[in-house]
Amino acid sequence: MKKTSPSFATVALLAAVWLAPDIAKAVPSYARQMNVSCTACHTEFPILTDMGRAFKLGGYSMSVEQTMAPPLAVMLQPSFTNTNAGQPGGAAPLFRNNGNTAMDQMSVFYAGRLFGPYAKSMFGPTAGNFLNKFGTFIQTTFDGVHRILHWDNAELRYADHGTLAGQSVTYGFYANNNPGMQDPWNTMPAWGFPFSSSALAPTPSATTMLNGTFAQQVIGVGGYIMLSDSLYLDVAAYHTPGAAFQRNMGIHPAAQAQVSGLAPYWRAAYTKKFGNQSLEFGVFGMAANTYPGRDSSAGKDRTVDWGLDSQYQASFNKSDILGTVTYIRESQQWNSSQALGSTSNSRDSLWSLRSAFNYLYDKTYGGAVGYFLINGSSDPLLYSNSANGSPLSDGFILQLNWMPLNKNGGPGFWPKSNAKISLQYVIYNRFNGAQHNYDGSGRNASDNNTLYLQAWLAF
């Protein structure tokens, strides 16, 4: 039975397939602004070090003022994708059913101080000092799979330092288009493992709202504080811009869940350093009233996510280690979607678990293993591509990385450049509700196992 209106799961699937490879970037313009190698702020990029988190909390504006280069950077991601079994009809329009090469994306960044190194010369010392507290992360991307030019992650920040009750405080305000991209840890979905994935491979249909559903589809404003380098608090509110604006930014609005009013986002985390080790525990969440498919004729749906996360990071001699765990629980109230025939139930629930262990040796050779699980209420209409109406999917991600320029920062004629060559293999135990014949067509979960070879070039 066909759905008459896109549900949150439909939107989430579109977001995962269309935008997932765009979620996390290391930007050489930051390294040039600080006159440091990429390894000062990253281990395996985009994993942040303590200095990288401090730079981000400082609004991308910290500088040693030793360069007059504008805050520009470029990124290329060529790739090869092969699944255990081909996809009938092709992996995507104009692609074969298997064994595809692609330019996943080509991106240009304006990332660093808002006015680059020119604020004081343009506006004078006093105004320049104030304006140098504003920083940007603005990415424009050509999606080589779907052949679309669109705005990608974008953020403007103001940050400063002070004291509160005798304790040091870093505080800031931001506007961005992806809930969670402002976070300084690699546990939030916007920055979590896997840091890139194939847009030419099948992915599970079900995903929680905070796993990219609203990426590049909303605009929000918020503020944060970091107290004594230990307690982090962040609140924000997001809203869906008009359809004409989204089309102008390269985002197709028709299948989206439109936020009605404001969708609040909240985050609290505590971190503690132990010499060359650090530990973080946090909570986060978001709530949204939405019109499915921008259709307000049947009222509003309501979705609430809340999550728990933890990160352990350490450096020992030539070894860098990162361990992450993220859990998200979602409650779904389908006042509109059920009336429109998109869901069988008036209420559903969904939850996801992701964990990963990343290792890097000598800033050059790395590996990672991750586990993912998503499950929740069975709903035959909501999960219509599941033979039993279940959202259950789980599996493992194995990855090898080689970063030949990481220690030396690229060639002398364009310093701070970097490259990462990754070989990733995704293994599905269950896919869209089952291990075998999950969609009624005879296709098995293991048919979607994916070999993904990618070069991540940043300069």
Protein architecture, described:
Strands 1-2-3-4-5-6-7-9-10-11-12-13-14-15-16-17 form a 16-stranded antiparallel barrel. The protein has 459 residues and is mainly beta. It has one domain: Porin, CATH 2.40.160.10. Helix content is 11%, strand content 44%.
List the helices and strands and how they pair.
Elements lengths: L7 H12 L8 H7 L15 H8 L14 E12 L16 E14 L5 H5 L1 H7 L2 E10 L4 E17 L2 E10 L42 E9 L3 E9 L3 H6 L9 E2 L3 E12 L2 E15 L9 E16 L2 E15 L1 H5 L7 E15 L3 E12 L16 E10 L15 E13 L19 E9 L1
Antiparallel strand pairs: 1-2, 1-17, 2-3, 3-4, 4-5, 5-6, 6-7, 7-9, 8-10, 9-10, 10-11, 11-12, 12-13, 13-14, 14-15, 15-16, 16-17
What is the correct CATH architecture? Beta Barrel
Q: Structural class of the helix and strand makeup? A: mainly beta
| Poorly predicted runs | 1-24
Mean pLDDT: 92
CATH class: Mainly Beta
The amount of helix comes to: 10-25%
CATH fold name: Porin
The succession of helices and strands, N to C, reads HHHEEHHEEEEEHEEEEEHEEEEE
The strand order across the widest sheet is: 1-2-3-4-5-6-7-9-10-11-12-13-14-15-16-17
> Can you count the beta strands?
17
Tell me about the biggest sheet?
A: 16 strands, antiparallel, barrel
What's the end-to-end separation, in Å? Answer: 49 Å
